[in-house]
């Protein structure tokens, strides 16, 4: 596996990785009807936009197998988007690996590359939000030294509640 910058040519594949991984991860946490309604084709414009016109300081890296160039995972990151964010904080916005590649070290490679980029950009710490009940992701973050900082929030933007906890990592 290797890491490379995601390009606009990856938009459709990243939309597919995003939706398929969401469906596998959040089954049981969110209504089945909502999961079934997720459609990679409808997510494509979001990815085209994110890749064509990334917000200031943000980036997306792709995880690709040694053979071939089709991404099987991605990480997006940049300055923290939290209200009243500490300017020293970078944020991991999303890290997703297709379920058939879980546990093979790809997530770790993506995270390491994102944290190096955030540290190189001058951020002294990083934060991320994870669903309270997402045990696999929480175990993954904690193995990498991330710790919950006590902040929680409820996201109701999808019409059902998602409770999230914030994690923080010192980059110095
Ligand atoms: C979370 C996710 C990105 C991890 O990716 P992955 O490729 O499965 O992770 P890896 O194979 O690199 O790491 C797996 C193992 O290494 C451990 N690990 C990760 N980073 C480590 C580090 N820096 N040091 C030591 N161990 C580490 C993990 O705890 C894990 O151990 P486990 O198998 O005992 O649980 C992936 O499971 C995923 O896409 N999940 C669904 C989407 C999701 O939940 N994203 C996060 C939303 S906030």
From TrEMBL:
The keyword Transferase applies. Residues 1-172 form the N-acetyltransferase domain. SUPFAM superfamilies: Acyl-CoA N-acyltransferases (Nat). Keywords: Acyltransferase, Transferase. GO terms for molecular function: acyltransferase activity, transferring groups other than amino-acyl groups. The keyword Transferase applies. This is GNAT superfamily N-acetyltransferase. The lineage of its organism: Bacteria, Bacillati, Actinomycetota, Actinomycetes, Micromonosporales.
């Amino acid at each position: 596996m290797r890491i490379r910058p995601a390009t606009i040519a990856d938009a459709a594949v990243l939309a597919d990785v995003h939706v398929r991984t969401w469906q596998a991860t959040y089954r049981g946490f969110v209504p089945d009807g909502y999961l079934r309604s997720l459609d990679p084709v409808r997510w494509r414009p979001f990815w085209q936009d994110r890749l064509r016109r990334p917000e200031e300081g943000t980036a997306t890296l792709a995880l690709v197998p040694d053979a071939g160039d089709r991404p099987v995972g991605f990480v997006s990151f940049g300055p923290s988007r939290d209200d009243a964010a500490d300017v020293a904080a970078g944020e991991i916005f999303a890290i997703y690996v297709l379920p058939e590649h879980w546990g093979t070290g790809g997530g770790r490679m993506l995270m390491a590359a994102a944290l190096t980029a955030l540290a190189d950009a001058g951020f002294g710490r990083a934060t991320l939000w994870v669903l309270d009940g997402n045990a696999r992701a929480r175990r993954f973050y904690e193995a990498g030294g991330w710790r919950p900082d006590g902040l929680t929030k409820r996201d109701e933007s999808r019409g059902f509640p998602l409770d999230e906890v914030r994690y923080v990592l010192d980059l110095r």
